[in-house]
Design goal:
The chain is an alpha/beta fold and about 500 residues long. The chain has 16 helices and 23 strands. A seven-stranded mixed sheet has the order 15-16-17-14-13-19-20, sandwiched between helices. The protein is globular and about 85 Å long. The N and C termini lie far apart (about 70 Å). The structure holds nicotinamide-adenine-dinucleotide (NAD). Nicotinamide-adenine-dinucleotide binds next to helix 8 and helix 9.
Length: about 500
């Protein structure tokens, strides 16, 4: 069976003291194995990145950008192959995989502008004959640890900008769908990156713990679930590293009584069930304001969900694919069971979808649950499956209170025609990314991405302008060239 390996110092290797099966989630069959890096392998990758750093740091910014331009062209050239790899291991349908890749490429495009982004700040004559400027220098070797749900896009949030800034990189992707991530890193190598600048180690906690403790790693970017994000953040910080750790989510959409209900339903369908709900920005709770809005929403959703097709990534007419593992399928079904046991009504039940020819796949059908309340476990925890829960409230204030009280604060949306209500919402909601009639307000590549509360640990968001700051450290230089023959007197006062 093929073993998906590592990329270290420009070479693909399969050091595999331990391996793990990689499944096609539509068939339920193990199709490959992934090598799980031991400590020594991760240390080799770090050493390669460390050795490549001095020359890469001093490579002119324009030349670093040229590698990114070539990388972008290669990503576009190989888009179909990448989407197929994502489909085989993640299960998402090709149109969805293409969207993921496009959003990833946009981060490469942003990194192409690195010369402009790194210009720094300059002030002339801050004192008599004294000039001062701030420049942004790379950190050294930095690491990324990424989740299964966007094997192309989320790594591309990190390393193009880190590398364009002059750092070298060690990426530890998800071990559940590693092939597209490794292939994309090889394309970057092919784009002309010197050996050792970009390294990939596949693995699990053992590999991650090396990245968190090795003193050569200066910063860690993490995206994944909240318990792991918290662990990564506290461990990296305790070891003196800069860290940003993006975690899980529970994204609410408020449906106001004045909303265009047909539009809201269309938007909710894609945002709740697209990619099987396995998106950190998926809308998983619809908060309907007033019973009339709630009844209309539930009735229209029920009707609109009838033609939805769950199935294999190989059929592009499917709306969404399987979830990632058998264990995760059981977990999602367990949440639907628990909502029902807690007194909610399962209006559309996706617990036993029939997918002809794929009977052993990890499928969950689109599910709609009404009458959910904030005490229920299914409301409090992230389900990460194709499940939309409806909570009924009687005012916009109550809807906002619900969202503000939730431990997560990644994304949210309001469906309304009332501009005043929308403005009040965006001003006062305790969430990092807000949509006004936009269900998935994922920021474009030249803004930054991040949630609030327990959806992000750290100060700086991912990609965009924050990434330039995250992957560099500021140095401020103050300079005077005294005229020949002029001597300053001694002064013990603070310079002013
Ligand atoms: P995960 O937390 O299980 O894994 C993420 C990464 O951490 C993987 O590389 C994994 O190998 C590693 N890891 C897992 N357990 C570890 C441990 N005990 N110690 C050290 N490392 C460990 O997440 P996942 O299931 O791959 O991804 C889904 C989660 O990611 C969801 O919670 C989703 O909301 C979240 N997510 C968040 C964002 C965001 O931007 N906020 C984006 C995408 C996904």
């Amino acid at each position: 069976m093929t073993i998906v390996g590592h990329l270290i110092n420009g070479e693909v290797r399969t050091d595999a003291a331990r391996t793990q099966d990689v499944f096609n989630p539509a068939t339920g069959l193990a199709t490959k194995q992934v090598a799980l890096a031991a400590k020594e392998t991760v240390e080799e990758a770090i050493a390669a990145a460390q050795a490549a750093y001095p020359a890469w740091r001093n490579t002119p910014t324009g030349k670093r950008a040229q590698v990114m331009y070539r990388f972008k062209a290669l990503l576009e050239q190989h888009a179909d192959k990448i989407c197929e790899m994502i489909g085989d291991e993640h299960g998402k349908i090709s149109h969805d995989a293409a969207g993921e890749l496009q959003r990833g490429i946009e981060n490469v495009e942003y990194a192409c502008g690195i010369a402009e982004l790194l210009k720094g700040e300059h002030s002339r004559n801050v004192g008599p004959g004294i000039d001062s400027w701030s420049e942004f220098q790379p950190l050294g070797v930095v690491a990324g640890i990424t989740p299964f749900n966007f094997p192309a896009m989320v790594p591309l949030w990190m390393y193009p900008m880190a590398i364009a800034c002059g750092n070298t990189f060690v990426l530890k992707p998800s071990e559940r769908d590693p092939s597209s991530t490794l292939f994309i890193a090889q394309l970057l190598q092919e784009a002309g990156l010197p050996d050792g600048v970009m390294n990939v180690v596949n693995g699990d906690k053992e590999a991650v713990d090396v990245l968190l403790s090795d003193e050569r790693i200066k910063a860690v970017s993490f995206v994944g679930s909240t318990p792991i994000a918290e662990y990564i953040y506290s461990t990296a910080n305790a070891n003196g590293k800069r860290c940003q750790a993006l975690g899980g989510a529970k994204n609410h959409a408020i449906v106001m009584p004045d909303a265009d209900m047909d539009n809201a339903v269309n938007q909710l369908l894609g945002a709740a069930f697209g990619s099987s709900g396995e998106r950190c920005m998926a809308l998983s709770v619809a908060v309907a304001v007033g019973d009339a809005a709630a009844d209309a929403l539930v009735a229209k959703m029920k009707e609109a969900m009838k033609p939805l097709k769950v199935g294999s990534a190989t059929d592009s007419s499917n709306d969404f694919g399987p979830v990632i593992t058998r264990q995760h399928q059981q977990k999602v079904v367990g949440y639907i069971d628990s909502a029902e046991q807690d007194g909610a009504t399962v209006v559309v039940d996706g617990r036993n979808p029939q997918v002809e020819g794929f009977e052993d796949g990890f499928f969950v059908g689109a599910t709609l649950i009404d009458g959910v309340t904030s005490e229920m476990t299914s409301y409090q925890e992230e389900i990460f499956g194709p499940v939309l829960q409806v909570v009924r409230v009687d005012s916009m204030e109550a809807a906002m209170q619900l969202i503000n009280d939730h431990e997560y604060g990644n994304g949210t949306c309001i469906f309304t025609r009332d501009g005043e209500a929308a403005r009040y919402f965006s001003d006062n909601i305790e969430v990092g990314m807000v949509g006004i009639n936009v269900p998935l307000p994922v920021p474009v590549s030249y803004h930054s991405f991040g949630g609030w509360k327990r959806s992000l640990f750290g100060d700086l968001h991912a990609y965009g302008p924050d990434a330039v700051r995250f992957y560099t450290k500021r140095k401020t230089i103050t300079q005077r060239w005294p005229s020949s023959g002029v001597r300053e007197g001694v002064s013990f006062s603070f310079p002013s």
